[in-house]
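input
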Amino acid sequence: MDLRARLQERLPDLVAAQADTCPEQAVYWFYDQSLKAYSAQSLTRRIVDALESVAPVRNQRFLGIIAAGTGKAFTPEVNAHWDEEVRPIIDALLHSRQFLDLAIKYAHEEPGTPLRMAGRDITALAHGYAALLTLYGR
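output
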């Protein structure tokens, strides 16, 4: 089964994850230096689980971002170096949410644009869909 068909099949789960996760709050909590920013980790996990329901995520760079931004526990010592400790949590949420939004978009839209170049018909692949292909290692 191709990626687009899997996205369409898993669309209800993807949309549910999108509805359950609001990065806006987490970004505010980061800038407000609120320990609530740590709750973004559960949002990230929810999104990654939805993405993995489509197919196994194989991109090591993405997996590294997720690993760096999850599994963290708050301690008062974090306040002294807040950015270094908490920004990876927000990065993981924002990267995962971007891929979730792309997955939903390309479940609905064609991933390429037909073009005619040098007398040949080709399809220019959309950058967002190409990013999804790299996420899933295709």
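quick obs: The chain has a mean pLDDT of 94.
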